[in-house]
Design goal:
This protein is an alpha/beta fold. It has four domains: about 5-130, Response regulator (Rossmann fold), CATH 3.40.50.2300; about 140-305, P-loop containing nucleotide triphosphate hydrolases (Rossmann fold, 3-Layer(aba) Sandwich), CATH 3.40.50.300; about 310-405, Helicase, Ruva Protein, domain 3 (Orthogonal Bundle); about 410-455, Arc Repressor Mutant, subunit A (Orthogonal Bundle). It is built from 20 helices and 14 strands. Strands 2-1-3-4-5 form a five-stranded parallel β-sheet, with helices on both faces. Helix 2 (about 35-40) packs parallel to helix 3 (about 60-70). It is globular and about 90 Å long. The model is unreliable at about 125-135, about 385-390 and about 460-465 (pLDDT under 50).
Length: about 475
């Protein structure tokens, strides 16, 4: 973590911050004037900047403007003894993270700095990941396996079958496989085989000769020819009609095909990547999908996890999509509060990454303020019953990420203590304070619950018998 910079011409204020940040274990550097901070900025940016507004020479607002030009995402906290509306408005218009009027409570100031540090670390993390792979984001172990598979296949032209729920990003993975393959300089052509009728799909895939059917007034090259030398992505392959399954099998087997109405075989130099949200093995058993075609497609198999299986990625994805929507619309990016982020991470999101992206676009347009709270989320999302098992796990993941980003220690003990305190207090509330009944419900002994109540500082009194 980079140091927090404090800029104030008042030595006593600098001294207060030095003592408080030292106590909290937060690295820092102090400056008596804005000009010195600007010179230091040439060597590198801080994690967070805290600056007075009214100072001799360069003012805090001028410093804010200069810093935002060089480091647009750097959180800046401005403080002043002149708590007037004009200063506050100017600070926020200049892109300040927060406004801190003097005199301030030291603990409040430190909490504000910690929030700014969390925001800055998340920005750094998001930028690093986006630079590494701007199309596919994920830190969950299941997504790291997908990334490793893409890397291992980078020198291969093998046929790949991608499975996963709708909206999980199968086409993005297909594009990444193409981009990192020896065929990257050639076309990537995608077609959804479930989105068009059988007769039209045949012509789309293989092309047609002039006069092959009514309306075919000119020869047309199909997707296989369009993808020559490159990659053809066949989405929702499980819905392909039986007749076309036979024609596709022939192409995969001998590398040739015929245009509709054609008599000359055409050689296909194409890598096929297929995708489906269906259980192809089950469709083979039901006689709806050719077994020999299934084995031709299932050379290399990649399974994409649903968003429910990688909830820890929701904050990263949400921040990315909010920033992307803001860029697309030419507006300032909005932020989800911790409570809203935890709530979002606890939803079922059956539409997976695509649904999350749509939510973030809606919020960019419709949320009334820059900081998005739970009440600002779409009504249908707030009305949806959270997944009973996973809503609190999503909140737990958010809290763990926050504590890790802050560099806290003994995280397991702190979270375990909060977990036990919540369980015991709720059990006691349920039983009207009767400890033995609460202990029985929790599956622990009476001596254990008595000891835990004392250790955790719970002061519930055991209700009298009867």
């Amino acid at each position: 973590m980079k140091p927090v910079w404090v800029v104030d011409d008042d030595r006593s204020i600098r001294w207060v911050f030095e003592k408080a940040l030292t106590r909290e274990g937060i690295p820092f550097k102090t400056f008596a004037q804005a000009a010195d901070a600007l010179l230091e900025l040439e060597q590198g940016a801080p994690q967070v900047l805290v600056s007075d507004i009214r100072m001799p020479g360069t003012s805090g607002l001028e410093l804010l403007q200069a810093v935002k030009q060089r480091c647009p995402t750097l959180p800046v906290i401005v403080m002043t003894a002149y708590s007037d509306l004009e200063s506050a408005v100017a600070a926020f218009q200049g892109g300040a993270f927060e406004y801190l009027p003097k005199p301030f409570d030291v603990d409040q100031a430190v909490d504000l700095i910690r929030r700014a540090v969390d925001e800055s670390l998340r920005e750094d993390q998001g930028e690093d990941t986006a630079q590494a792979s701007p199309e596919i984001l994920g830190q969950a172990q299941s997504m790291q396996e997908v990334f490793r598979a893409i890397g291992r296949l980078s020198q291969s032209s093998a046929t790949v079958l991608i499975t996963g729920e709708s909206g999980s990003g199968k086409e993005l993975v297909a594009r990444a496989l193409h981009r990192h393959s020896p065929r990257a300089a050639k076309p990537f052509v995608a077609i959804n085989t479930a989105a068009m009728p059988k007769d039209l799909l045949e012509s789309e895939l293989f092309g047609h000769e002039r006069g092959a059917f009514t309306g075919a007034q000119a020869m047309r090259r199909g997707r296989f020819e369009q993808a020559e030398g490159g990659t053809l992505f066949l989405d929702e392959i499980g819905d392909m009609p039986a007749e076309l399954q036979t024609r596709l099998l022939r192409v995969l087997s001998d590398g040739t095909f015929y245009r509709v109405g054609g008599h000359q075989p055409i050689r296909a130099n194409v890598r096929v990547i297929a995708a489906t949200h269906q259980d192809l093995e089950a469709r083979v058993k039901e006689g709806l999908f050719r077994e020999d075609l299934y084995h031709r497609l299932n050379v290399i198999r990649l399974r994409l996890p649903s968003l429910r299986e990688r909830r820890e990625d929701i904050p990263l994805l949400a921040r990315y999509f909010l920033a992307k929507s803001a860029r697309d619309l030419g507006v300032e990016a909005k932020r989800l509060s911790e409570a809203a982020m935890a709530y979002l991470a606890g939803q079922s999101l059956p539409g997976n990454v695509r649904q999350l992206e749509n939510i973030c676009h809606w919020l960019t347009v419709m949320a009334p303020t820059q900081l998005i709270e739970i009440g600002d989320l779409p009504a249908e999302l707030r009305e949806e019953a959270p997944a009973a098992e996973s809503d609190w796990l999503g909140a737990l993941a958010i809290e763990a990420d926050r504590m890790l980003a802050r560099g806290e220690s003994s995280i397991m003990d702190k979270l375990a203590m909060s977990f036990e305190k919540t369980l015991i207090s709720r059990a006691l509330a349920h039983t009207g304070g009767r400890r033995i009944d609460a202990a029985n419900l929790l599956g622990i002994g009476r001596n254990t619950i008595t000891r835990k109540i004392a250790e955790l500082g719970l002061e519930e009194k055991e209700a009298p018998p009867g």
